[in-house]
Fold this protein.
Amino acid sequence: MSARRLLLLPAVTVLLALTACGTEESGSGSTASAPANGTPSPTSTVTTMTAGDVKSADCPSGATLQKLVELPKDMTFGKVECVKDWAGADPQGPKAGDGVYLFHYTAGTGWKYYGEGSGYDCKDLGLTVPAPFCISDPATTTTKPATAKPATTKPVTTSPTCPSAKTLGSLVELPKGVTFGKVECVKDWAGADPQGSNVGDGVYLFHYTAGTGWKYYGEGSGYDCKDLGLTVPAPFCISD
């Protein structure tokens, strides 16, 4: 009897091993069940900017906008107010006027300088709601005071690194129908002549600084060459 029992033991062992193996295979194909309470996972929310919402998170800071332009010495941006995709930055400093620096946001290119002044018409900007940097009533629209026309001077020299009109056009957002024509450079300054309807006799002035490249400086026609650090005549500033 003892010999027969010894022969049955291996068969029992094999049967138990096969049973355990089948249990593991059936368990490996199972999937995790949904939460018992059936509550869906939370989704992120997006805050949209409404008309006149100057507190939107998308509104750039003064420091951010100051990276896009080169302000005159001792000038900084103070309060920035935004409506839709427009931002008006208030310049602060001893020579600051009552106008603002206006910037426009376009998807894919971000914020770009648009203009400087205080007589913007909201309709021209595509705004149908009031904004602190433009005039809603066309009847009260004022024009920017004209500046003194500089004396005609002959350019001394053109920098070999003088940027093209296309390059300078990528730094600012020109009004509809306006493009840059002739670009004249003296040392590290470049004056771009705007072409199109409703353009004045001024130029867009850009300054080159090592490490940052060309940046918008100002728009007008009454620049003093000495204020720009130029001791030679230039077509975009007035020399004594």
About this structure: The radius of gyration is 34 Å. Residues 56-138 form one domain. The helical segments are 2-28, 62-66, 165-169.
